[in-house]
Structure formats: structure tokens, C-alpha cells
Amino acid sequence: MKIVDINNILYKEKLKTKEKIIKKMLAKVTNDTLKEKNLFNEIIKREEIENTVIGFNFAIPHSKTDFVDKPYVIYAQLENEIEWAKNEELVKYVMLVLVPKKNSDVHIDILKDISTKLINEDFRKKLENVKNISEIYDVLNV
To answer: How far apart are CA 76 and CA 112, in angstroms?
Structure first.
């Protein structure tokens, strides 16, 4: 399953807060300021209910939303680990998943596919050792 489009990959990001990272990731899929603000608010609200750090230095913020018309996955690999949520492990890899509300089954399929990959130690090591966006694309979409 193709997880992410090459244009939706950020590499060696130097941003230091969850909010700034999410905003930059959202800018990859919309140039509508109002839509971006609404998406951001939905994601942050979801994070307040339960943060999305899943282990292995990964966070997977996600939203089923009316503000996208098709599913998107945006990937960011940070230059340095950051604190995503208090009392959680640090995060270096972020996969933002946005799915239209009407496609709940797709939302589950994407999260399941990502989770299956993240459990695999070889997959994580390959992501750790990438040198550019093209290599990230190849690793994520195997």
C-alpha cells in the first residue's frame, strides 16, 4: 500500500514544537488558511484527549474530518527529537493522517498499515538511515 506521496514528505525539519510541526505538515496539503486552521484545531483537540505518541520515537496525529476531500498522509522526519507530550518518550518521526469522515474504513486501514510497518525493526532502521526524501519515499511505500 502506498502510504505517502513524495510531495508530502518533510526531511530534517528543525522545528521544535508539536504545534509548529503540525502546521508545517498541514501546509503541504492545503493553501486555504481557514481550512488549515480548522484542521489544526481538530488535531490539537484530539491530542488533548489522548496524545498520539506510539513508541519508537513516532507520533501519529490523525483526524477524521470534513476539511479534506481525500485521504492524506504527511510524513516529517525531524533533525532532532522533541518532546511531543509531557511524560512521553521523545519524538523524531511524525506521520499525520487526515481522512474524510465518510471514509472511516480507510482511516483504520492506513493506521493499521503504518502500525504494522512500525513494529518491524528493519523498517525503523531503514528510516533512521535515510539520506534524502527519495529514500524516505521508497522506505515508506514498500
So the answer is: 19
Q: Which of 101, 72, 91, 87 is nearest to 3 (CA)?
A: 72
E strands present in 1-142: 9-13, 53-55, 58-59, 62-65, 72-82, 91-100
By DSSP bridging, strand 72-82 and strand 91-100 are antiparallel
Intervals of the chain under pLDDT 70: 1
Helix axes 18-27, 33-49, angle to 10 degrees: 140
Return the SS3 of 29. Answer: coil
Residue 4: strand, helix, or coil: coil
According to DSSP, residue 86 is labeled: T
Task: Kindly report the pTM of this predicted structure.
Answer: 0.94
Residue 16 half-sphere exposure, CB side, CA atoms within 13 Å?
Answer: 0
